[in-house]
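Trying the structure run again after the queue cleared.
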Amino acid sequence: MADDVAMTVRFGREEPLIEFPAERLTVSVPVTAMNSRLYRLDGVPIFVESASFGDVIEAEPVGVDRLRFVRIAEPGGWRTFDYVLSPQKIDGEWGQYLLAELTERGGYWERVFGGLLFVCVPPGFELDPAPWVATF
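Done. Tokens:
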């Protein structure tokens, strides 16, 4: 099995693709342009270890709707937790209540592939989502 396989993951056509060369990974992530080369990650860069939700990254344009990650210019300070749950649990009344509560308290969540749930907790907000998510 080769260790140097490059991978591209695209979730939405409206999101730019961001290359993470050191990880040989390219993913689509919603961003907010801060200035010519700085972008805030407004979504979870799935499978990426070098940057995370809320970080402001420096990236260079390498094509239409395509960026190449250079460095983290300003860490966002968000903590991201990931869980694999059944779609029925996430979509259930209790799951939707907990996710709405998280959003109301300033948190962020994102769901991909049906049952992969990312819970993002803002800086300074003390929440360990593990026991909370266990109640799903």
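Strands lie at 7-9, 17-20, 25-28, 31-33, 38-41, 56-63, 66-74, 79-84, 108-112, 116-121. Worth checking whether this holds up in the mutant runs.
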